Amino acid sequence: MKNNTAWWLRITVAFFAVIVLMEVYIDSGDQPAFLAYPTLMFGFMALILLLLIAIAFIVQAIENVLYNTLDEEAKERYLATKEEKWEWTWGKKMYNKMLGSKPMEAEGEIILDHNYDGIRELDNKLPPWWVYLFYASIVFAIIYLVRFHVFNDYNQTLEYEQEVAAAQLEIEEYKKTAKGLVDANTVELLTDASDISAGKGIFEGNCVACHMADGGGGIGPNLTDQNWILGGGIKNVFHTISEGGRDGKGMIAWKQNLKPAEIAQVASYVLNFQGTTPANPKAAEGDIWVDPNTPAQETPVEAEATPVVIDSAAVTMN
Ligand code: HEC
């Protein structure tokens, strides 16, 4: 039996259709399903492939059996109808319709009657695919004109601003989850016990020589009082630890040795010293620091009128 309409073609098409369907319906987040569940998917697709091949074989076998039950005349008729490859007839018809060209034999109908040294011209119609595209672009242009120039729906500036705003939100979201990205401007006081105990470990490993284990101070200033040389509050303390103190005082820039997340932890730990009473407190140095974001209760109006800028970059003198 000849012409068993490209069974492998059908299998391939069905196989890829299943893959596409699975991508659409399996919820695998941002990743393609194949990357999210590789073994499962490969196993499943191998099974599907086997199944498709099996079906193709069975169909073929049934067809053969039925074919052999036919008489000679019926066999011929059957083969004749199979000859027309139905898969392609619709596509071919459509293609020809869209081209709209006359077949060679019919060119006589549209030939123009001038003749330049043997060169003659056909009066071809515009190809329908082109004409339809042209109409579509007119419709598009009308809708566009009315929407953007008559009703001023939105413009490129607005579109840009919306996208920037959305991106900014994403950055905020990202920074919240990525602890390592903190800097002196974004750092917040950490309160988790795990962060504080990590900060304690860092403090005891690096800082006690000058600040004492209880923060009472030695070579370095007392960290338990309200007085700060370089500014209090998480942002200033983070900045001091990260960038170091004034030149020649002995407080180095710890950003060489500590990661931003670790500096945030040790800074939070340092702020926990506030209000504790160390064994040998060093005399207060610097000014009492008032958080400009929580204005003193007695003078709320004044504090609001003259907000103190906590630009932590301004406190370093080196
Ligand atoms: C070699 C001694 C030394 C070590 C080690 C040291 N510091 Fe300091 N620290 C100082 C000195 C000195 C100052 C005062 C700097 C100045 O006056 O500019 C200071 C200032 C500070 C301040 C600011 C205090 C204020 O009043 O503004 C903080 C906060 C601080 N250190 C935290 C730390 C932390 C956290 C560590 C460990 C990671 C550390 N220090 C390690 C000597 C040290």
Tally of alpha and pi helices: 12
Question: What ions, cofactors and ligands are bound?
Answer: heme C
Query: What's the architecture of the domain at 184-315 in CATH terms?
Result: Orthogonal Bundle
Listing every helix as H and every strand as E from the N terminus to the C terminus, the arrangement reads HHHHHEEHHHHEHHEH
- The strand order across the widest sheet is 1-2
Mean pLDDT: 85
Low-confidence stretches: 299-305, 314-318
Classified in CATH, the superfamily of the domain at 184-315 is Cytochrome c-like domain
Protein name: Cytochrome c oxidase cbb3-type subunit 3
Keywords: Coiled coil, Heme, Iron, Membrane, Metal-binding, Transmembrane, Transmembrane helix
Pfam families: Cytochrome_CBB3, FixP_N
Transmembrane segments: 6-26, 38-62, 129-146
Quick tags:
318 residues; Cytochrome Bc1 Complex, Chain D, domain 2; two-stranded antiparallel ribbon; 54% helix; binds heme C; coiled coil
Q: Describe it for me?
A:
The structure is a single chain. This protein is mainly α and 318 residues long. Among the domains are: 1-70; 184-315, Cytochrome c-like domain (Cytochrome Bc1 Complex, Chain D, domain 2, Orthogonal Bundle), CATH 1.10.760. It contains twelve helices and four strands; from the N terminus they run H-H-H-H-H-E-E-H-H-H-H-E-H-H-E-H. It has helices spanning 7-25, 33-36, 38-69, 72-83, 86-99, 128-150, 156-177, 193-206, 208-211, 233-243, 260-271, 300-305, and strands at 111-116, 119-122, 227-228, 287-288. The strands form two sheets. It has a two-stranded antiparallel ribbon with strand order 1-2. The chain has a two-stranded antiparallel ribbon with strand order 3-4. Strand 1 (111-116) and strand 2 form a beta hairpin. Helix 8 (193-206) crosses helix 11 (260-271) and helix 10 crosses helix 11 (260-271). The longest helix is centred in the N-terminal third of the chain and has 32 residues, at 38-69. The model is unreliable at 299-305 and 314-318 (pLDDT under 50). Residues 157-184 form a coiled coil. This is Cytochrome c oxidase cbb3-type subunit 3. InterPro entries: CcoP_N, CcoP_N_sf, Cyt_c-like_dom, Cyt_c-like_dom_sf, Cytochrome_c_Oxidase_Subunit. The chain crosses the membrane at residues 6-26, 38-62, 129-146. Residues 194-274 form the Cytochrome c domain.
